[in-house]
Amino acid sequence: MNYRYQAVDEKGARTEGVVEAPSRDLALSALGRRGLIVTTIHDVEEKKGLSMVLFERIPMKDIVIMSRQISTLFEAQVSALKAFQLLATNTENPSLGKKLARVAEDLQAGTSISESLAKHPTVFSAFYIAMVRAGEESGKLIEVFLYLSEYLDRQYALNSKTKNALIYPAFVVGVFITVMVLMFVMVIPKLSAIIEQSGQAVPFYTKVIIGLSNGMVHYGVFILIAVVAVVGYLAVLLNQPVGKKYLDKIKITVPIIGPLYKKVYLARIADNMDTMLASGIPIIRAIEITGNVVGNSVYEDILKTASDRVKSGSTFSAGISGSIYVPQILIQMIKVGEETGSMGQILKTLARFYKREVDDAVDTLVGLIEPVMIVGLGLGVGILLTSVLMPIYNIAGGVS
Known about the structure:
The chain is mainly α. The protein has helices at residues 24-33, 50-55, 60-75, 80-90, 94-108, 113-118, 126-138, 141-198, 204-239, 241-253, 257-278, 283-293, 297-311, 316-319, 328-340, 343-399, and strands at residues 2-8, 14-20, 37-44.
């Protein structure tokens, strides 16, 4: 690991640089042997290529397991430093092990747990760090890490179910497109040659199919380049704030899929708010953090507006009202919670409700997609084969 330092040598001259060492203590020892008096030293995150970043990505499931283990170790009266050292050497994910080892080094240097975790934003979200900070301030770290593990487990299950519902239709559509391309490029040209040699009149729909086939055979490379260029342009555009906001809006407004995504985000908002309020985080901070981690810019803007309104003395229910993307039932239930002092229980109920709605919507969607795709794929293949095989059948009938 690399450490950037600033130091003073024996002659009083200031110097700075980077030293490589397994830990901060060993880095200080190495610099001391050079006759340097270190004034500041901090670790330097190495720049990684895209493949390395993807390879070192930490799955949410590993974070869930780690949070549960920390809660158990704290409950067994194991110190924070010892807990993170144990997890760093025993975790199955080497990338997570490195991160935890760095956290342990920071703890040994006197840094708080939340500050140590905040140095690794790719692993620990703002929500996670805020929860840990609240646990440190309230002395409820055991409960907080237990809350975190349960919360992340719920989010992991919700996200997995939503993604899995879309994997099957995407796979089937991908296979269908591949088969159709192969037929247009390899099968239809041979059949069209037989049709053209017969000299018979060719139906219009058959001419269209043959024309598409010839276009793909002769200009396939250019079509592929154009498709790649368009996909690349869209990828860049959607990574920009304007493009991302447009995509986020489409996600929650498109028919069939839109209501599913909307329920996912509402479940996430309710679950986040409930978890943070239960941990003693002030409501304004809870709203701000939820907006940062909700995962959709439309709801992020709604929560930012709500935060500003609450700061001005408004209630949370009034803060989120006025948006077509927030159902009235949610607003009214939160209002009841504010009036009765049972906000946490109301949010917990809403989170369970929307999670159940997501489960039902996913099951319904999967049940509808399968027959629709079978009918659609059957019609597509049927039209393609009929357009080409009927003329050949007529040729065979005329010859006989």
